[in-house]
Amino acid sequence: MSGVSDRVERFAPIFVIIAAALWGIDGIALRPSLYSLPVPLVVFVESALIALLLSPIFWQRRKEILALKSRDWLAFLAVAVFGGAIGTMAITRALFNVNFVNLSIVVLIQKLQPVVAIFLAAVLLKEKPPKSFLVWAFLAMLGAYVMTFGTHLPNLATGDKTLEAVIFAMLAVFGFAASTVFSKRALHNISFVSATYLRFALTALVMSVIAIGAGYITQISDIQP
How far is CA 101 from CA 19, 84, 179, 182, in A? Predict the structure, then answer.
C-alpha cells in the first residue's frame, strides 16, 4: 500500500496541473459560447452532463457510496453548495461581466484562493499553518499582483460591470476555498473516484432546484450543439 501511496503522492502535482489546464480551457474556449444563457442554467447543465458521464461509477461503487454516514453526506453537500454551486456560478458570472476580455482582475483575485483555503482550514479543521505562512502568503500575493498588473494600479473603470465582476470573483474564491476544506472531510470514508461522482451529482441536484425555482429550466432548449 505504501508503494501505491508514494506513486500517487509523486504524481499529485501533475494531476493538479492537468486539472488547472482543463479548467482554463473551459473558461476561455467553452464557457464564452454560453454567454447568452442564465448562469444557473449553465452550471446546472455542465454539472448534470458530467454526472451523467460519471454515472457508471455509481453502479460500480454503489456499496461504498450507500455506506456513507450522515456526516459524510453533509460534507459532500457542503462541497456541492460552496464549490459546485456558489463558486462556479460566481466565477462564471464574473467572467460574463467582463465579457472574457478584461480577465486580469478576475485572475488575480482567484490567486487568493489558496490563502483563503488555508485560513478556513485553520478555522474549521483546526489545522495550524506554520508561522511562516503569513510571510509566504504575502510574498505569493505580491508576486501574483506584479505578474498581473506590473507596477500599475488595477483599473476598475474598464466597464460598468467590472466592480461587480470583482465582487463575484471574491465570492468564487470563498466558495472554492470552502469547498476544498469540506472536501478533506468528505474524503475520510470514500475513494476520490466515488467522491468525484458525488460532487457533480449533488451539484446537479442543487442546481436543478435553483434553475427550476428561478424559472430558467425552460431555456434549456436555447442551448445549441
Answer: 23, 24, 27, 32
DSSP state of 200: H
Inter-helix orientation angle 192-213/70-79, to 10°: 60
Please give the DSSP secondary-structure letter assigned to residue 30.
I
Taking the domains of the chain in order of start, what are their residue ranges? 1-34, 38-222
Put residue 28 in one of left, alpha, beta given phi > 0 → left and psi -120 to 50 → alpha. Answer: alpha
DSSP state of 154: P
- Does residue 217 contact residue 42 with C-beta atoms inside 8 Å? no
DSSP-assigned letter for residue 61: T
Per-residue pLDDT tens digits for 120-179:
888 888 888 888 888 888 887 787 777 666 677 766 666 657 778 878 888 999 999 999
Sign, Cα dihedral of 27, 29, 35, 40: negative
Angle 78-84-89 from CA coordinates, rounded to 5°: 125
For residues 127 and 121, the answer to whether their CB atoms sit within 8 Å is yes
